[in-house]
Write a structure and sequence with these properties.
Residues 893-912 are annotated as: Disordered. It comes from Pedobacter metabolipauper. By secondary structure, the protein is mostly beta strands. 10% of the residues lie in helices and 60% in strands. The chain contains ten helices and 54 strands. Strand 45 (783-800) and strand 46 (804-813) form a beta hairpin.
Length: 912
């Protein structure tokens, strides 16, 4: 090569290479252009047909082109020096044709593009080809319309389209590159749209007169809502309920919207799936493992205007913690917040037996590379429950009638705060902290009146009257730090995180019992007992998760997680009613736990035309040690377990989707279940912990058919072995409940979700689950039981003039199982009325829960020794009337939200 360079008039090797590259590039472009001019048929797919799904956040044109190349067979040719300066591009995530994507990227630039087979040539247009259109958009009040959308389409070729946003003064500036007639369209969220024809002639600049838009927000909003995406969509491993753009987008909150999710309903206290399955709640992939009431309060504080969708993982995959039981519901918030301050404020007043109030606020502030979020929740909700219990001991024939009245004065408070900082376009770091506690003490009082009847007698011969008071307090703190690196332009990422959790429990309780004869006179010294439970836990969690897109249709995920926890529980028993009473060393105990869980997982997802599959495997090692400081008793285990998952999805056109899924899961006992302590509800009813509990496993197989992205039909099978259930026995007239690994469950079920729009103003949703369940009880009981169980839920939503909304919903669950025993049918009807103001920013909601007093849960325990029938006549959380107000506010230019990174420590937090 060196000799050749010398022969060529002394040209150096480097100069020759540069010259050769330039000539080759020009010749190559000329050949491609010639082929294009001569070609009649193009074998490659048109750029108007191939689709890409990309999002840009202040990125360069070069990055966008590489992202398109990664998802298609196209290759771009351009002069890098010419396009290097095009940056700061923003593009909302959506699926578009390659042609439309390029129009969006190159609008208002002097670049044009041309397809030549599977190649796309970008070239700079000459100045004489550019024609500028200027104008201003005003409202009917002669004030500028900010951020109006202006689009222009050539009449003879609708594919030639450019668009722009008006500035804060309503002014806009557009460029086109061909003469002729164009269709100009101006639209805004707050006005009607305006369409008119303009002609581009010889003049290089066209100044339009002021364009006036009339206010008519309702029409535009209706057009936007109907549209573009179905209510329900299906991917390989999850079902998505699209709230954004639906009839549920305005004036609701996250908790209310659970009633819209197929198969999910809220009964006033618990969120259930298909009648009796558990629900695990995530928000933006962060698990919300809060105490029940705290979780409900937090969900109420999330307005529907901030929610993009609900994602249901009915059969969770290997990337999720194996501890996840039931369905996972992930609330996906909209991917945009605004510069400046945005958020919502909510307050409410409710009445049951007592007056209850709630209050919450959520704030988001964005400035530069920082995004700061904060929230506050307060809830004062006194509760009253009333149980009536009928009990018979078979060996003696002694019967008792028992009334329990339970009053709880509950105050809860929660804070959360987070900050994200973008190191650059790919890397983000963040910190978050949240705390949940009760301000002061929770005061519980329980009175129990037991009347004993001799055999064959209707008169009470003696009775017990017990009073228990508790001043319960707790605090729960979690801090999380994360690092995210977006590895490529297709969604690949690396997440690294650390979480620290601290839990502190203080539960003192005083119990006094009086013994009365048939005349109501005390005939025995009172029994007094004081107990105090203290619990502290510290947990450290480290996690790393990798997602890599090998191609637009192939995705792999891999990761690992380590959880280390130290838990210390103490139970003091004292013979008296105060903390200064004499200690009972025979019952008092202290138990310590050390647990380490190490997990690794990997998944592979592949889509091909109408087919898709995903396989995954998770391995977890559990190393557990526990010791009683008082007695020296020890327990422990150290074992590895595997958790596979698999999905197969088949789509037939746009209207039919079939999914077959399988997973294996684990359920570990909670730390408080393992405590070998005895808790007294009254002198005759106790609960005992069990340090010998071990985890149990379940297998889930489901087949789902989704019709027209609305109607869901599911057939499934579930089984568990050595499940944890409460075994109720007796010692004389003392009823003892103790959790044990004695339950084997099998059930086959089918479930139907059918939403129907009966009229323009009436929507009807219904979900029905039919379940055949068998229950085998191990040990001395040796029972086999089976039941056919059905659950029906329905909701009617009426949209009335003047932005009034009425919803009437009802739920019915047939006789089922409560652990090992019979749970009788439950039913309820609830009514809601809502009125919206100020473009749905302000919403007033009135709720009436169970106005007909239908909800009276009842269960029965039958053993060879005794029978016990429990009826709850009064349930405050299920029967109340209330009024709440919610206001949403925002200001500033839209920008992207805080990073949605999973705070991995939430899994460990659940078991506290």
């Amino acid at each position: 090569m060196k000799n050749s360079a010398i022969l060529w008039n002394g040209i150096t090797n480097k100069q020759f290479i540069i010259w050769l590259m330039r000539v080759s590039f020009i010749i190559f472009l000329s050949i491609l252009t010639s082929f294009q001019l001569m070609a009649v048929d193009v074998n490659g797919q048109s750029m108007s047909e191939q689709k890409v799904a990309i999002r840009l956040e202040d990125e360069t044109l070069l990055t966008a082109l590489k992202r398109i190349e990664a998802q298609t067979t196209f290759r771009f040719y351009y002069r890098k020096a010419e396009i290097r300066g095009i940056s700061g591009l923003h593009l909302e995530f959506n699926t578009r044709s390659v042609e439309n994507t390029l129009y969006e990227l190159l609008k208002n630039s002097d670049f044009s593009f041309k397809q030549i087979e599977n190649n796309i040539l970008l070239r700079r247009s000459t100045l004489q080809d550019a024609y500028t259109i200027k104008g201003r958009v005003l409202g009917s009040n002669s004030k500028p319309v900010e951020f109006a959308t202006i689009s222009i389409t050539k009449v003879s070729n609708p594919q030639i389209k450019f668009s722009a946003l008006a500035d804060t003064g309503g002014r806009f500036n557009l460029k086109v590159y061909e003469r002729g007639d164009y269709l100009l369209k101006i639209s805004s969220l707050e006005t009607d749209s305006l369409i008119q024809t303009i002609n581009i002639g010889a003049s290089k600049e066209l100044q339009l007169p002021d364009l006036v838009l009339n206010r008519s927000a309702i029409q535009l909003k209706n057009v936007a809502i109907k549209g573009t995406r179905p209510l329900i969509s299906r991917s390989i491993d999850k079902l998505t309920l699209n709230i954004e753009g639906s009839a549920y987008e305005n004036g609701e909150n996250a908790l209310r919207l659970f009633s819209v999710i197929p198969g999910v309903n809220f009964d006033g206290k618990d969120i259930r799936f298909r009648g009796d399955e558990g629900v695990t709640v995530y928000v933006d992939n962060r698990r919300m493992l809060l105490p029940g009431d705290q979780l409900l309060g937090y969900l109420r504080s999330i307005p529907s205007e901030s929610i993009k969708s609900f994602e249901l993982k009915i059969v969770p995959g290997a990337e999720n913690d194996a501890q996840n039981s039931g369905v996972i519901v992930n609330i996906v918030l909209k991917s945009e917040f605004k510069y400046g301050l945005s958020g919502n404020v909510k307050g409410g007043f409710f009445h049951s037996s007592e007056n209850n109030v709630i209050g919450s606020t959520f704030l988001n502030y964005r400035a530069g590379k920082f995004n700061i979020q904060g929230g506050f929740n307060y809830r004062r909700w006194p509760a009253f429950y009333e149980d009536h219990i009928e009990q018979v001991f078979h060996d003696t024939g002694v019967a008792s009638s028992q009334d329990e009245k339970y009053f709880e004065l509950y105050n809860s408070i929660a804070y959360n705060a987070s900050v994200d900082y973008k190191l650059d376009q790919r890397q983000t770091i963040g910190l978050s902290y949240n705390m949940f506690s009760n301000p002061g003490d929770i005061r519980n009082s329980l009175t129990t009146d037991v009347k004993y009847f001799s055999p064959n007698s209707n008169a009470a011969d003696s009775s017990l009257f017990s009073e228990r008071t508790t001043r319960f307090s707790y605090s729960n703190h979690m801090a999380n730090a994360f690092y995210r690196n977006k590895l490529d332009t297709m969604g690949g990422r690396l997440d690294i995180g650390y979480s620290f959790i601290y839990y502190d429990l203080n539960d003192p309780s005083a119990l006094e019992t009086r013994f009365l004869n048939d005349l109501g006179q005390e005939f025995h010294p009172r029994d007094n007992q004081f107990t105090k439970t203290r619990g502290r836990s510290t947990i450290h969690v480290f996690n790393a998760d990798l997602e890599k897109h090998l191609s637009p249709s192939t995705v792999i995920n891999a990761g690992g997680k380590f959880t280390g926890s130290i838990t210390d529980y103490t139970m003091d028993y004292r013979n008296g009613l105060t903390e200064q009473s004499p200690l009972d060393p025979l019952q008092s105990d202290r138990f310590k736990y050390n647990e380490h869980i190490l997990a690794f997982y990997g998944t592979l997802a592949q889509t091909y035309k109408q087919w898709g599959f995903k396989i995954g495997l998770r391995a977890e090692q559990t190393n557990y040690e526990g010791i009683s400081v008082t007695t020296g008793q020890t327990i422990g285990r150290n074992q590895w377990n595997l958790f596979p998952s698999a999905y197969l999805n088949r789509k037939l056109g746009e209207n039919h989707s079939y999914t077959l899924s399988y997973n294996r899961r684990i359920e570990r006992p909670g730390f408080r279940q393992l405590n070998p302590f005895i808790s007294y509800a009254n002198i005759n009813t106790v609960e005992s912990g069990n340090p010998d509990l071990v985890p149990y496993f379940s297998n889930n197989l489901q087949f789902e058919y989704l019709l027209k992205n609305r109607y869901s039909f599911t057939l499934g099978y579930q089984n568990t072995e050595n499940g944890i259930a409460a075994n109720v026995t007796n010692l004389g007239d003392v009823i003892v409940s103790k959790n044990e690994n004695i339950s084997d469950n099998n059930n086959v079920f089918t479930s139907f979700y059918i939403p129907v729009k009966l009229t323009k103003w009436w929507e009807f949703n219904t979900n029905t689950t039919l379940r055949y369940r068998t229950l085998d009880v191990q040990g001395s009981l040796g029972l086999h039981r089976e039941k056919f169980i059905y659950n029906m839920w329905a909701a009617n939503k009426f949209t009335l003039p003047g932005k009034y909304y009425i919803e009437v919903s009802g739920n019915y669950i047939s006789s089922s199982f409560r652990d090992l025993y019979d749970q009788f049918n439950e039913k309820s009807i609830n009514i809601l009325v809502k009125k919206s103001f100020f473009k749905d920013r302000l919403n007033l909601t009135s709720e009436i829960w169970d106005p007909f007093h239908l909800y009276k849960p009842r269960y029965e325990i039958n053993t060879p020794e005794f029978s016990r029938n429990v009826l709850r006549n009064k349930v405050d959380y299920a029967r109340y009337i209330g009024l709440s107000i919610n206001y949403n506010f925002s200001s500033g230019k839209k920008q992207s939200n805080t990073e949605n990174v999973d705070a991995a420590g939430n899994e460990a937090r659940r078991r506290l």
